[in-house]
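As a warm-up, study this chain.
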Amino acid sequence: MARVVLAMSGGVDSSVSAHLLKKQGHEVLGLFMRTGVHAEEDSRREGKKGCCSAIDAGDARRVADRLDIPFYALDFENEFDRIIDYFADEYLVGRTPNPCVVCNSWLKFGRLWQYGKQFDADYIATGHYARMMNGELHRAVDPDKDQSYVLYGISREMLPRLLFPLGEMRKSDVRSVAREIGLGVVAEKPDSVEICFVPDNDHARLVRERRPGRATAGSFVDEAGTILGSHDGIERFTVGQRKGLGVAAGERRYVLQIVPSRNEVVLGNREDLLSAALKATGVNWLIDSPSVALACEVKIRYRHAAAPAMVQAGEGNTATVTFETPQSAVAPGQAVVFYAGSRVLGGGWIA
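Now compare it with the structure written out below.
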């Protein structure tokens, strides 16, 4: 029997994970991260779902009590505050942040594991949809729920310590299990589809509240620099965006680039969004860093279908990705992840 610390969020995925781990004979300890994020009391009725709120903490504790496993709520508010700072600052320099990647690599499989070691745990588990196979990180069986993309940043040394109980399951089956074991409200809890600290999905407002006084209003321009109109802040935009531009034009326009030094948002046609290559920084390899160009499949955002490409590792944790076919809307700041079939090879940040 192994001792496993499980990140419990109060949702159906981590709750069923607790049940499955205990059923497998493990000694399970539930850990909840208090982040300081608050949810409205009527969030369930409105069908909203973030994570790590006081409501979620209560749900997680009730599940732990029902399953008869120890439960600890840990104060991560200061650490999580730094993730929100990262989120705001990335938008202000014209990049599109991915806080889930940062939270996973830094908090859940970093700081949370430090607590796990204090409990003499053998493994750390989460309700992520991914698989560990022969010490390797792989996609989940359910392609619609696969979360391996946001897990690439886990350190290679952590791989032998990871358990993902839901990797072979589909979401509908997870909910069925929750109902069968009497988890009540948790079984019907909606999926978390928003950034937990931006529950209304208004990231521009959060950026302005986080960094008051920063003047980011400016102009829409075309690639030749011709002014097409004005906007009230670069934090409202990301590369590839079409909706909500508010620019009258006879043809559809897309955000091609954000130039924070001039507060300009460059617009163009859909064809102008195509990129044949990209550079990645902060690359984390889950294999030995390849000495020659590596043929693999590459994802440039969560819902992107991985595209064939060649990845050449560079100096200082960088890499160059050259696509077999140009890809649309390569957004600086987003994660780029490398795959060989279902296996995650590594990834980094789009420069």
